[in-house]
Each structure stands twice: as C-alpha cells, then as structure tokens.
Amino acid sequence: MIDWSPPKRPAAYAEKSLITSIINGDYPPGTILPAERELAVNLGVTRPTLRETLQRLARDGWLTIQQGKPTRVNDYWKDGGLNVLNALVRYAEKLSPDFIPNLLQVRLALAPQYTRQAVEHSPALVSQCLRDAISLNDIPEEYASFDWQLHYSLTMASGNPIFTLILNGFAGFYEQMACIYFSHSDSRKASWEFYQTLSDTTLRNDSVEAENITRTMMKKSIELWKSYSGGGL
Length: 233
Description:
Blueprint: H1 10-23, H2 36-43, H3 47-60, E1 63-64, E2 72-73, H4 76-79, H5 82-91, H6 99-121, H7 123-131, H8 140-157, H9 161-168, H10 173-181, H11 185-203, H12 207-229
Antiparallel strand pairs: 1-2
Helix pairs in contact: 1-3, 2-3, 6-7, 6-8, 6-12, 7-8, 7-11, 8-9, 8-10, 11-12
C-alpha cells in the first residue's frame, strides 16, 4: 500500500531530493529550476518549506536566487562551500573516481601543518592521544576509529579551529573510507609505525620533524589507496 502521508521532516526531505537531483545531473549547472509552485508540488512540500530549503541551498552555494529571476543551479565545485562537501558524502550514490584521491590530497596539504602546530601548542594532548595506539587491535574498524580521533585531536590541539571545521566536513565518511583502507594489513602496519614515530617525535617536542613525518605518511597513504583502488573507489 502506498503511503501518501507527507514526509515527517519535509525540509530535510526537500533538501535531500534537490541536492541528489543536482549531483545526479537531473539539474546540471546552469539549469533553471521549475517555478516555485510546480517544484513544491513535485516535492510534496509547502511553498514556505520549499522557500526555506532553497534559501539554505543558495547559502551553501548550490543555487543562485535573485529577486524577480528564476532560480539557477550553480556549479557546486566552483561555487559551493564546506557544506557541499558534507552533502556530497551523504547524498551521492556514487562519487567520482577521483573524489577520494582528491580528498587525500587536501589532507596532505593540511595534516602536516596542523600536526606541527599541535605539537608546538599541546604536546601533552598529542602524546595522550597517541598512547591509545598501543592498545589497538589489528582490525580495520579500530584503526579507522583511532585514525579519525587522532586527526580530530590534532586539529583541536593546533589552536586553529578552521582545521577542525574542515575535517568535520567529512566526519563519518572518513571512517567509512578508512575501514576500506585499513582492511589491508600493509596500511595498518604503515600507520602503526607512523603513530609510534610521531609519538617519539612529540615527546621530544620536535614539531618540525612531526610535520615532516606526517607529510611522508600522508603521501604514502595516497599511494596505498591508489594501489588498492586503481585510483578510484
């Protein structure tokens, strides 16, 4: 039996539907969305709910809304903000093959910097986090969870909250992909060695070396991922 009742969270439903349609190419960049009345009917939501959703999507960079003009779909890769990244990992049925390598390249650019700053500002906090690596069981899920917590702690200890905001843009998705990455024993071995080396370096308060070994590890993680996935997912 078909359930014709309205969605319990109509704004969230409308947002997901529109973002999915944009990502999947139903509304490609440059497309003009249907008129508000028609779009509200198609989505099964009220016009005030739709209007609220459109304003939120415009704020994040998905859409351009101008008074007296139709709503246009943006190129979200060029016009989107941090919330676009979060939406991509939540709503995209299939990410492009280069999405993960590109994401890892961003981590390569950021992680050495926030690690150096973390060791400079809060070496005790970094050391405390790294001590938990000793008790890691040799299973992907534990490594994935620990690796996320480590990088989150490093961003927090860096003293720059923008690093944390960027990392939080793909929370959840990070561990999902990390479980795939850590399903390979050589990835777990490489990270174990990295954790131990970083721990020793932190105890010496050598922030420059911490930056260098983190950069080396981030590069290695990209190489390992590409070797497992052929460059894609």
